[in-house]
Amino acid sequence: MLTISLILLPLIVSVLLFFMKGQKASQQIALLATLAELAIALIAFTGFDKSLAVNYPLLIDWLPKMGFSFSLGMDGISLLLVMLTAVLTPFIILSTFNRENKLPASFYALVLMMQAALVGVFTSQDGLLFYVFWELALIPIYFICGLWGGENKVQITLKFFIYTMVGSLFMLAALIWLYTKTPAPHQFGIKNLLLVIPTLSPVEQAWLFAAFVLAFAIKMPLFPFHSWQPDTYTVAPPAGSMLLAGIMLKMGIYGLLRFVLPFRGNTLSTYGPVVIVLALIGLIYGSIIAIKQQEIKRLIAYSSFAHVGLMAAAAFALTRDALAGTIFQMLSHGVNIVALFFVADIIQRRTNTTQISELGGIAKQAPRFAVFFMIAMLGSVALPLTNGFIGEFLMLVGLAQYSMAVAAVAGISIILGAVYMFWLYQRTMYGETKPASESFTDLTSTEMLVAVPLIILIVVMGVYPKPLLEIAQPAITEILKYIH
Amino acid sequence: MNTFIALASLGVITMFLGVLNLKKWLLPFIVAGLAVTIAVILPSWNNPGNTFLDMFYIDNFFVLFSALMVVSTLVVFLMAAQYYKGEKRSLEGIYSIIIFSLFGGIMMVSAGNMIMFFTGLEIMSISLYLLAGSHKTSYESNEAAMKYFLMGAFASAFLLFGIALLYGATGSLYFTDISSKIAAFHGQVPSLLKAGILLVAIGMAFKVAAAPFHFWAPDVYHGSPTLITAYMITVIKVAGFAAFLRLTMLCFGSDTSLWVNSVAAISAISIVLGNFSALTQSKSKRMLAYSSVAHSGYILIALVSIQTITPTIIAYYSAAYVAANLAAFIVIIMVKQTTGSSDFESFNGIAKTNPVVAACGAIAMLSLTGIPPLAGFMGKYFVFSSAIQQGYLWLVLIAIVGSAVSIFYYFRPVINMYMKDAAYETLKTSKLSIGILVMLTILTVILGLIPGLIINL
To answer: Could you tell me the residue range of the domain that residue B391 belongs to?
Structure first.
């Protein structure tokens, strides 16, 4: 019941919003809906029972004849990602307050529809249902970027759409393939599908592995499937970038954990390193490109590309620490990237530019903003006592257990990450005040409503990560059981 | 048999209504008549009727597909109210010919004998040649009629020759007899029979506009009056596929190896040619024509991987396809009546002038692309799933590439509707056409969410 209400609430409000007009009313309804969603998610969080394999299960017949059902439920990983979605969406909506939007009601309707689809992806226990939500999430974000985006939005969003859709279609073929190999009568439950994998021939396994990894690699994105990402993040409206980088990207990693890691034995040990190498290339490549960027949003996009590479590599290290780190980093990265895109949005709104060369000396004008930016940045470069540190530290430990060389490369990237972030901060916040940033006003009270909770999240998660880490443990054990 | 009597008398009375100067009552009468026809069809569900010495089969298959065809025709007639608004000339001729072609289509779907099958097909086709040219003053409409007639006659000749060869090889025209004769050959099939089956398959591929026998489709679909195109691309397509399915199940099903490779090839070529040709079109009707070629390819995949559930899968796919296409054509008719053209540019900015129309049009396009949770996705899923089960992974992979390509052209009207500015104040719409449009859209969503509505039948 709890799980379905997490999906239905935003969906119903979304449908209602499509018939509304007016900025104020729709904003408030959307915000209220997401806060209610957060409350439900918190209830789910407090009532979570770690001893159960699947919490809050729900099973409704969909089409029993074809073996698929409307089956929802949460394990630790699902719960954490649902929490991430529920926590971030109110901030994403708050961040758009005081901003003139055309068709505001439709905008918020699409954001809520996106939230419903994301929760659906993270809680589906049925393969086809997972696919339906997976694709459903693409529609609202396509329209958010296509209708409210910047220059060249039509081509860029279409490229994004086709890129991800192609990957997903191969995933669909892989899912159907697994489904046809389940014992008759065929079942589409994710559990049933995963049990089939070890019974397949190595060649079949390799192809399925490729199909799944392709879909998830495009979504994250991993090198060399990332060419859609910087353009899309830049052209998207701020709320769109936050949804894309903050939550949607996690769909890819979630998919890896859910569908790819259970390829045990030879397949994983043969082809896993390929993914690790691609992830490491992306990690270094993304970091270096980020250093060269002249535009804030592109820089954040490439930093996200680098971070996600580290998460993917750590997922394939297949140790308990690495997996815990990956899961924790999904949450921290979500919070940090939303904070960073919010920073970019504020700069854009105040100065009408995001070119780094045109900015400077903002810290003098806006000390509170400088503090917010500083903490978001520190979280992103993984300073101890921030949330980024916990995730990256655990991932590095896990990678070192897997291979020292890999850990060394990953370590370099963290240094590079510090380079581009600090340099960005230095060039925009310090130095002489450029004309564009002369009349930079400090954070307004609505903006503080977003900034302060994000700061608190960054610090609290960094100081006391234990409850979050513990919730994920049984699910990690489950994954490792598949592997060994 | 009651169905045929109902439809035939409906057509004849429609003609006389025009003569008696009761034009106002034409459409209401036809709609009521079609509703009666549906009421006559439905009781045959799980209650097979008289077969008239195996000439007809009035079974569940018949009920499923003929009900779908009659309902779609009914929607087409509801669309006619807006399409022919303010039309001076008398319309009873066009309307009755539509009903006669529906009669032919249903006859073809229910046939159990090659002669019945061919007669039904010709009644349907000859009516369509007339309909394609029903816009007498339009150059394009005349061209469409001519092309359609020449190519259609050609296809009919193929089909008839194939039937003759089948008769020569098996000594019978009854589907079940032919089937048992084919089985009796135990794989040692005479080449006469092989040639016969191939010719029949080619003839059918012509009729359902599957590549490489689709060359008539874009010109005919583009040139015919838009309402007639909507009718052809939905009802006639469904009739063609139902008949094709009936043939393969009852007649050629006893030895699938005879035709399955050819049909698989036709399917693959249709998907590739249909999708890639649709890419470069700038006119919405031509785009939908090529898209319908691609969809023929997808449905043929289901035919290739034939199993007991295939009829319901094809019925589901057809329902999804019909709902989306009819919705698209309602939008096209509105656009064409407002701007005088059906090019993609004419779709600019509909989201701002008529948001409901734009939303329905966009959902129709998304459904045709195969985006969940819409009916078009579920249709594709069932087809892909049955193909993979039967070992046709390569066909599915081709279909996946085709689907990816299709995003480009299905999204063009969506992009124009939502991301460009309109050149006019508002579309010419009517309450009735918006009502049907919304109903079709709701149907697309509901069928997608609850596929069991048709699959569990």
So the answer is: 260-457
